[in-house]
Design brief:
Blueprint (H helix, E strand, L loop, with lengths): L1 H16 L5 H8 L5 H61 L5 H13 L3 H12 L1
Helix pairs in contact: 1-2, 4-5
Length: 130
């Protein structure tokens, strides 16, 4: 509720109080406040008195929001990395447990050396090494 009313009202104040307000910006922020009385009686006196404090607090809020966003991004990246490595470990443990005779492994190695079915045999050899 604070951001729904107070922030647009404060931006309206800032747009009006500047020497040469941009009309479109003024209309955008002041559309939330249809009555001039609310502006003159409530908002203008308070905002004029506390403008520096309000700007400082908004800056602090933006910095805090950025820090929280970065922290959440870092935690998501760590979670994703952990899950990715768990999947790799699961796949490698199950592929290593598949039975393959020495004869099949030798044939796959020879075919790979001779250049036949290189990609398929490479995967077989790679899976056996893991």
């Amino acid at each position: 509720m604070v951001f729904g009313y107070a922030y647009p009202a404060y931006e309206c104040f800032k747009a009006v109080e500047k020497n040469k307000p941009d009309i479109e910006q003024l209309l955008f922020w002041c559309q939330y406040w249809g009555r001039l009385m609310l502006y003159n009686v409530l908002l203008r006196p308070y905002a004029a008195k506390h403008e520096k404090e309000i700007d400082l607090n908004l800056l602090k809020l933006r910095i805090k929001a950025r820090e929280i966003g970065l922290l959440l991004w870092e935690k998501a990246a760590i979670y994703g990395q952990t899950r990715f490595f768990e999947i790799l470990q699961y796949v490698s443990s199950h592929s290593a447990s598949l039975p393959q005779s020495d004869q099949q492994q030798q044939e796959a190695t020879e075919e790979a050396i001779n250049g036949r079915s290189y990609s398929k045999n490479f995967l077989v050899i790679f899976a056996n090494k893991i």
